[in-house]
Amino acid sequence: MIRIALIGYGQRGKFYLDTFGKYDDVKIVAVCDSNKEKLSLAAEKYKLSADRLFSSDEEFFAKGKIAEALIIASMDEYHYAQAIKGLKTGYHLILEKPIAQSEEQSREIARLAHEYDRQVFVCHVLRYAPLYTTIKKMINEGKVGEVISISATEHVGWWHQAHSFVRGNWRRSEDTNPMIVAKCCHDLDLFVWLTGKDCKSVSSYGSLNYFKRENAPEGCGDYCFECKLKDKCKYNSMKFYMNYPAFAFASGQYLGDPKDKRAIEQAFSTKDNPYARCVFKCDNDVVDNQVVNVLFEDNTTAQLTMTAFCEGGIRTIWIHGTEGEMSASMLDNVIHYQKFGKIYGVEPEDIEVTVGETFGGHGGGDEKMVDDIVHALRGDSGAMGLTSIDKSIMSHLMGFAAEKSRLEGGTAIKIEK
Question: Is-above-0.85 flag for pTM?
Answer without folding.
Answer: yes
